[in-house]
Amino acid sequence: MTLGLFDDLPATPQAPEWLEPGAVVLRGFALPQAIELLQAVDAITAQAPFRHLITPGGQRMSVAMSNTGALGWISDRSGYRYGPTDPTTGLPWPPMPALFRQLAREAAEAAGYPGFVPDACLINRYAPGTRLSLHQDRDEGNYDHPIVSVSLGIPAIFLWGGAERADKARRVGLWHGDVVVWGGPARLRFHGVAPLADASHAMTSGLRINLTFRKASG
DNA sequence: TAGTAACT
DNA sequence: CGGC
């Protein structure tokens, strides 16, 4: 994608691409806010720095993570959970910017989930080679609320699996500005990210930034 | 088990 | 694969 000067500029408003009932890719949905979103990520991660979490099995995740909002997702040797404070600093996670909340609500509504009010935004930073193996989002209080995932920077191949880990995963390209929303019958689908290819993007210093919005409590 | 090794 |  090093040649794709205009890869993040869709020629026309894009039709929603349904992966299955309940799950949709909104191409370019976050493009108008991309610069502001990335500026906010810089401000947030100046307070809650990116770090590589450890899985319960003791392995270092290749994705660097931070959080914004009342709750943040964390992993360590004792498990996965949401918590109100950053284990690295002991401070509350930085408050979620109104722009983030609004984008998540609008994307969820466009996907058929009106009234989404996220209380957690996991910020994932991917460098070339970074991956995220297939998993389910199962650490939230209930599964009535959708997941909203915003892609910024260099492209990735999203792995869209099934209800069981062994199900074959579909490979879906995600570019700067794309937003994936899944909920309802698709809420517990396995998903992940293939190892990132080398690429560059002017707005992210050659990285991919992913914002994943969830309602973790309530 | 949000990762890895150790296979085929 | 074994501890939440």
UniProtKB/TrEMBL annotation:
Domain Fe2OG dioxygenase: 117-217
GO biological processes: oxidative RNA demethylation
UniProt cross-references to Pfam families, sorted A to Z: 2OG-FeII_Oxy_2 (PF13532)
One Gene Ontology CC term in the entry: cytoplasm
Positions with a binding annotation for Fe cation: H135, D137, H191
Claim: Iron is one of the keywords in the record: yes
UniProt cofactor note: Binds 1 Fe(2+) ion per subunit.
InterPro entries: Alkb, AlkB-like, AlkB-like_sf, Oxoglu/Fe-dep_dioxygenase_dom
Keywords: Dioxygenase, Iron, Metal-binding, Oxidoreductase
Needed co-factor(s): Fe(2+)
Binding site for substrate: W73, Y80, R81, Y82, D139, R165
Chain sites annotated for binding 2-oxoglutarate: N124, R125, Y126, R208, I209, N210, L211, T212, F213, R214
Domain of life: Bacteria
Protein name, as recorded: Alpha-ketoglutarate-dependent dioxygenase AlkB
Organism: Acidovorax kalamii
